[in-house]
Amino acid sequence: MTAKLSNAQIAWRAAQDIQDGAYVNLGIGFPEVVARFQPPGRQAIFHTENGILGFGEAPAPGEEDWDLINAGKKAVTIKPGTAFFHHADSFAMVRGGHLDVAILGAYQVAQNGDLANWSTGPKGVPAVGGAMDLVHGAKRVAVITDHVTKDGKPKLLEACTLPLTGVGCVTRVYTSLAVVDIVDGRFVLREKLAALSFDDLQSLTGAALHLDGDVADLTCPEV
Amino acid sequence: MDKRIATLAQAVAEIPDGASVMIGGFGGSGAPIELIHALIDRYLATGSPRNLTVINNNAGNGHVGIAAMIEQGMVAKMVCSFPRSADPRVFTERYLAGEIELELVPQGTLAERIRAGGAGIPAFYTPTGFGTDLAHDKPVAEFDGRSYVQERWLKADFALIKAETGDHLGNLTYRMAARNFAPLMAMAAARTVVQVSHVVEPGGIDPEAVVTPGIFVDAIVTVPHPAQEEDLNRANAYYPKVTA
Fold it and tell me: Over the range B153-169, which residues count as b (16 or more CB within 10 Å of their CB) and which as e?
């Protein structure tokens, strides 16, 4: 089995592409980790769907104020410049093209940018939250994910088989093995782990990987 | 004009069987626990109101607030975006048993449908949900080369919301992220009932700071130290209290 990036390293890599002053929404769960890896000297402004812009880190245990939570219902803090607003304004920021980046998890991503990340099928209680809104409107919609599923099946596919969150919405995928852009309905390989051959990476990918110029080494520190 | 009502019981007395009720809150933040529990008290005493449609972002957590309404059998239908929580068992069991209906709405669409209801806009187009299972039966139109889904307004008979400070005229301010859906629901309900932590005379709120103008509010009741749903759940609270 080829070595791969840890989840923290995938998040670290995604964080390197967030510019100073960018307005950013991080999906609940794994994507929230991206906030820990802002490069020195850069300060993103984080948006959470329930109505806060520019919130701070988690408070110390025992210091939680449960009127001050993020979309994952975890306690956060205010800091100079924090703003509160109602839900319609919050989703105006989302759909209205005001966010620079949204970073989300994925079950599957298709080569045309379709994303499936909200439902694994008709069993149980369906729940969508803001996922279907977040995939529309941000200037960049990036996905962070393991390159394959837990049982080794490709997550980057010609077409999603799970229920879609959005059509043609993803622009870049950061995986445990590679960085892949979605350009004109194709996966374009930008970076891969140096120890992994193109053919090995292709064999773990469910759609053709295309080349457009050099492929850089995907390197991350231990984090 | 004075929109103050003396008791929680009076504040929820008019909600009939079969009503649609918007309830503010995102998870525990902004949940009007005392108004909800007053409604449960009325149901336990009189058998009414029942067969309610409840509109909220979630579908209850633990055994207090909306979860307790569901547990008592007052709710026929939930309209929400995310019927999961730390402890969603009350809703989950009834949903899987076919005892409660669910209309699942993307979160931003839910907010905008409520806003549209309050603003007199019967329908609007949004990119959200296009090409997904949640929009397959909805009209679609193209604008500037992109496809959008038509969504309809959402209104309700009542809204129960929580605010921080209210004056006698119903002007409101909120506390941090507890604001969430409340200003929208206040607009979209035929009758909006608000629990406030502080009540002040007109003039006690800086006009520049008013978030919900009093025109959207029908009744306010003072609850000086409101319970926080998250605290209740961390204490494993039940409503009404389980007795031996």
Answer: bbbbbbbbbbbbbbbbb
Closest alpha carbon to B56 in B162, B199, B168, B135: B162
ipTM field: 0.96
The residues, any chain, with a CB within 8 Å of residue B208's CB and separated by 6 or more, are none
pTM: 0.97
> What tokens were used for B10?
């009076």
Say if the Cβ atoms of B85 and A95 lie within 8 Å. no
Number of residue pairs across A and B with CB atoms under 8 Å? 145
Q: Tokens for B177, please give them.
A: 């992220």
Fold of B8-126+155-227: Glutaconate Coenzyme A-transferase (3.40.1080)
Domains recognised in chain A with CATH numbers: 7-217 (3.40.1080.10)
Question: In this predicted model, what pLDDT tens digit does every residue of B41-86 receive, in sequence order?
Answer: 999 999 999 999 999 999 999 999 999 999 999 999 999 999 999 9
Tens digits of residue pLDDT in A9-59: 999 999 999 999 999 999 998 999 999 999 999 999 999 999 999 999 999
Q: Mutation test of the interface with chain B: which of A87, A107, A136, choosing the one with the most B Cβ atoms within 10 A?
A: A87
Q: Judging by DSSP bridges, how do beta strands A45-48 and A52-53 pair with one another?
A: antiparallel
Mean pLDDT of A130-141: 94
Contact B177 A136 (CB under 8 A): no
Alpha carbon distance B156, B214 (integer Å): 18
Rounded to whole angstroms, the Cα distance separating A85 from B211 reads 9
Strands of A156-157's sheet in order across: A115-116, A108-110, A156-157
Q: Where are the domains of chain B?
A: 8-126+155-227
CA dist A42 and A16 (Å) reads 10
- pLDDT, position A1: 45
pLDDT band of residue A2 (cuts 50, 70, 90) is low
> Could you tell me the two tokens for A61?
């245990």
Alpha carbon separation from B33 to A100, B55, B118, B163 (Å, rounded): 37, 15, 24, 12
What kind and span of H or E run contains B185?
helix B182-188
Q: Which residues of B40-50 are buried (b: 16+ CB within 10 A; e: fewer)?
A: bebbeeeeebb
B108 vs A66, A119, A130: nearest CB: A130
Which chain B residues contact residue A132 at CB under 8 A? 106, 108-109, 128-129, 132, 134
Minimum Cα–Cα distance from B113: chain A residue: A88
Enumerate residues 6+ apart whose C-beta is below 8 A from A158: A110, A111, A206, A207
Specify which residues A83 forms β-bridges with: A53
